[in-house]
Amino acid sequence: MGKFKAVGGRYKGVEVYSKMNGKTSFYIKYKDLEGKTKREKVGDSPLMSKTKALIRLKERQAELNALRSNLNSGEINNYLYQKNKTSASLRLTIRDLAVMYFRDKADIKDFPNINSKYHIHIKPDKISNKPIMLITNDDIKKFIQDKKDTYTQRNGMQRRRSRKREWLETDKAHQERQYKLTNTTINAIYGLMVTIVNYGLQEEYYLGRNPFHTKFRLPVDNIKLKYLSDKEISLFLRQLKWQSESFEIIDKYVYLIGLLAVTTGARMKTTLSIRAGDIDFEKGILHLCNLKVNEHWYESAIATDEIKTLLLKFSKGLKPDAPLFVSTRTGNQIYRYPRVMNKILELTVNWHRQEENRMTLRDLRNSLASNLARKGVSLTHIAKVLDHKSIVSTSRYAQLGSEVAIEAVREYAKGLTR
């Protein structure tokens, strides 16, 4: 195996490399604008010689000297900074960008939820530690498929061991409490990855390509035909009220949260982010923040005197920017519905339903819209209640208003035949 050998003398900076086939390659060595030593091949014998290599070296040095003379020190530093910045950005991973993203977004209301979603679903995956520039379509497809095959504990409950290290529940009971991530949840996880990379591009931390595309999002069925009946909602609220009055120390909020969920149709994050200053008792209005649409604010009615009384009770003495719902253990704002609400929903609503028709707390929002549609309320008004950006989103409830429309046609037809 050959090796590099300096020619020396007046040929300083010229090196030769002897190959096994008897030929000789000529190289030149010089310092670039960054002061780093570069070795550049200029040719092989017999077409290249040490004299021609020396001429090439002088030409390269002249080019660099001319560049140095045309650039002042500030321009050179900027050139080096941009070059190093580009090189470093190409090695960035989603984990790297996530550190900066969550550092800058720590003050947003939805921070705990997106932070939890990242640490549970994205950070442990191999794709998060791979340079973004090297992420392929196959990597993304595998990530999404893995999420489709992921099982999560229902209602967040964990399997526990007794002191004798025996399971407190059977394997069958444990499996029944597991469920696969929905397409909507997987799209939200994927969307967070897209958001993190777009943040890096916007802030110019990352200067490469964005490998994520909307074509990887999973299809979602937006037709909402599942809803709680008026009777089921009454049973659910009655049990919540009993729970909040019987266990006031730990569950005092659950009844009010349930009332707000079924009368405002607000999303969980919106309901739980209500602050004392968002309540206008004089006008009977709640100012709600739609965290899904760039913190868009909208208004909703304080529907009953009972809700008003509870809002007065829990907001008394609070500063305007203080959250209404706080943990009795930590004193910090809560960001998820109390677990007992899921248990009560199971006992009052889901116990007689088939698996495919089981309801979740998210369906409280859908139930309000569905019942309004069944009662003949226009989609335009329902869109305002739910704060939909487009009425296209509300059209999913149109099918539930068909009975009202049919009855209206019958009444109209009766008038024609009189």
Describe it:
With about 425 residues, the chain is α+β, with helices and mostly antiparallel strands. The protein has three domains: about 5-70, Double Stranded RNA Binding Domain; about 95-215, no CATH class; about 230-410, hpI Integrase, Chain A (Orthogonal Bundle). Helices cover about 45% and strands about 10% of the residues. The protein has 17 helices and nine strands. The strands form three sheets. Strands 1-2-3-4 form a four-stranded antiparallel β-sheet, with helices on one face. Strand 7 (about 280) and strand 8 form a beta hairpin. Helix 3 packs across helix 7 (about 185-200) and helix 10 crosses helix 14 (about 365-375). The radius of gyration is 33 Å and the shape is elongated. The chain starts with a strand and ends with a helix.
CATH superfamily of the largest domain: Intergrase catalytic core
N-to-C span: 108 Å
Elements, N to C (H/E): EEEEHHHHHEHEHHHHHEEEHHHHHH
Domain module count: 3
Radius of gyration: 33 Å
